[in-house]
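Running this now, will post back.
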Amino acid sequence: MTDKNNYAVNMPNIPPDVQKVLKHTKLILSLLVVLVLLLNTFFQIDPEEVGIITRFGKYIRTVESGLNLKIPLLEKVTKVAVERQQKEEFGFRTKKAGVNTQYSSKRYLNESLMLTGDLNLANVEWVVQYRISNPFNYLFKVRNPESTLRDISEAAMRQIVGDRTVNEVLTVGRTEISDKVENLIQQTCTEYSLGVKIEQVVLQDVNPPDLVKDAFNAVNEAQQEKATLINKAKSEYNKVIPKARGQAKETVQKAEGFATERTNTALGEVARFNALYKEYVKAPFITRQRIYLETMSEVIPKLGHKIITDDKGNNVLPLLQMQLTGTK
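Update: finished.
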């Protein structure tokens, strides 16, 4: 019996038109199956991702970005963004990111409320920014890696904040806290083989609890005013002290110059006197007469009106009248 006769025996009551429709349906189903298999064979990996291929849950290989192949129905691909910076927020949540970023008004005190080293409370909100550095470890070494990273981050922040005073946490110690928390999170993630690289820890906002916020604000204002006064005092100090030092140095230099001048003048006078004395020894009368005349030539111009007479002069009145008349 031929195949056609077998088909007629198996489907004796089906009309030829229906049989034709069934054949077309079978062909369409076959094409759909082939299409589904093709769609499950080819897949695309974005530039910032890698693909992790698993077969029945077992890791097989890692594929890079671009068009790739896998065994349909047997292999599964998991895309992991290794070039994208991701973040975890603590104490707050971002509702809408952009130019005007909006944050959730809901308070997450179970995350942000912390005890400081001096037994005070502070609300600490922070962000952990990270990248997936090892996708295999991220998917297979730790269960729930995101939840694990959040637990590690919160534990590290509580440990570092617990070693600082509340003033350090609220003011001057924020940068140091961020750096220490970043290092501690990275160290713990490396020990756990979490497969992530911590890029930055940012303290978003640090505030005292609402009940004592006014008191803390008053203390902060006082500290800021203190710092302002100190800076103003340092500014005045920098203005006055260098000027006084310059004036003192100028006075010392003037005194040194005056001393040098007087010394040189005295040495010159000594040399002149020695030279004069040598000439005086050679001719005492002539030298004495010359010195007398030189001295008188210097003194007489300084005396004003002068009348010079000899010892035989009897009356100087005519001379005085002539001088007075000549001066009119």
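The longest strand covers residues 121-132. More later if anyone needs it.
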